Amino acid sequence: xxxxxxxxxxxxxxxxxxxxxxxxxxxxxxxxxxxxxxxxxxxxxxxxxxxxxxxxxxxxxxxxxxxxxxxxxxxxxxxxxxxxxxxxxxxxxxxxxxxxxxxxxxxxxxxxxxxxxxxxxxxxxxxxxxxxxxxxxxxxxxxxxxxxxxxxxxxxxxxxxxxxxxxxxxxxxxxxxxxxxxxxxxxxxxxxxxxxxxxxxxxxxxxxxxxxxxxxxxxxxxxxxxx
Amino acid sequence: xxxxxxxxxxxxxxxxxxxxxxxxxxxxxxxxxxxxxxxxxxxxxxxxxxxxxxxxxxxxxxxxxxxxxxxxxxxxxxxxxxxxxxxxxxxxxxxxxxxxxxxxxxxxxxxxxxxxxxxxxxxxxxxxxxxxxxxxxxxxxxxxxxxxxxxxxxxxxxxxxxxxxxxxxxxxxxxxxxxxxxxxxxxxxxxxxxxxxxxxxxxxxxxxxxxxxxxxxxxxxxxxxxxxxxxxxxxxxxxxx
Amino acid sequence: xxxxxxxxxxxxxxxxxxxxxxxxxxxxxxxxxxxxxxxxxxxxxxxxxx
Lengths: 227, 241, 50
Description:
A: elongated
């Protein structure tokens, strides 16, 4: 059979992953519910003082988004690995990084888009006003793909291991730190009345770097894990 | 140049390590004694920080070694992955433990230095935060290796992780420094010693050399142990011949 | 000399313990393996530990 043109293959892979996730949508929904719950727990523990809540809001929302993303990432390859599909995908004529990119894109559609819809609501919960909810959402839209891309490397490395989920988080947390700093920093800047432009540009830069290098690193990791 | 390739074989590496260890361990011990003497007895009291500054003589070498060993670890792991040389991967595994130890020591001695001089146990400035992140990178490397049963896959997966980590270190350092300068108001700036008196510089350099030689000796000894573990008959014939 | 305070002495004590502990652990591991390898060698009919 003639190899499908690359874009068609990406579209097909994305469609496949999204459909599979839709059929087991309780997993994805649980991840989002987890996110909302974690964010909601913080006001209960730090008190209702609105100034305090406003100042911790960017950090809390970002960390919760990070944790929720990592929850979803451990499932990125493991389901396909378990039933042997992953090896078949690696045998496609397309390079492996295409597979990785497609899966991350599917994860983004399933997770990041609902997150972007939820973020303004969470921001309101913490009493953020003016531009800040928008900036927070924008930072999440720009930053979560980077998180997913870097996390895909961790997911590929821990394929098939016991305790893969927690191990993945442990491995990639240090690598998330720049994105976390820039993302929360953008919202903080807006909160303080300044411009989030610098942080957003840095977020964009890390996204570009991640787009270029992470799929390649993840495909190398997949080959290591599947030998 | 190709003569060096034979050290990719566990047997040769084992013997070379055995020859090098005494040449590193003994001078390391001697330099330690000299360095500690110069640092604790001879060096004068600092007019700003009093005697608490003397922690510097182990804090700085430990921090240096922590960073240096991580870079070496990544290089060896990368060589092992690309060239399929088992000895290189074993070197990376050896380096990881000593590196973790030094990084942890650097963090704790840093706290012990900070308490009497800045008044707090911990400060979130660029260097301390980056050293903490370095510790996490080390722990991640060790965890991944120990989580995978197959030694080949473990070595290669850890190599990928180490390379991704080492490439990210400058980015992480930059972002932490960025974060720190934006929040400068809340932090205490670390007093930099701009020029150091000779009587303080000498023990520092000696201690750095001592830690270096100590690291070489311990890492090579652990390499020998790893070779024994993984390739026992090679190790036996290596010592017998 | 002695009046350097608990922080300085604590730092040095910690470092020497950490380094000494690392070496001790390594020596213990080597000794254990040496005995194992020696047994394996004698069973295989090879030479002894030098």
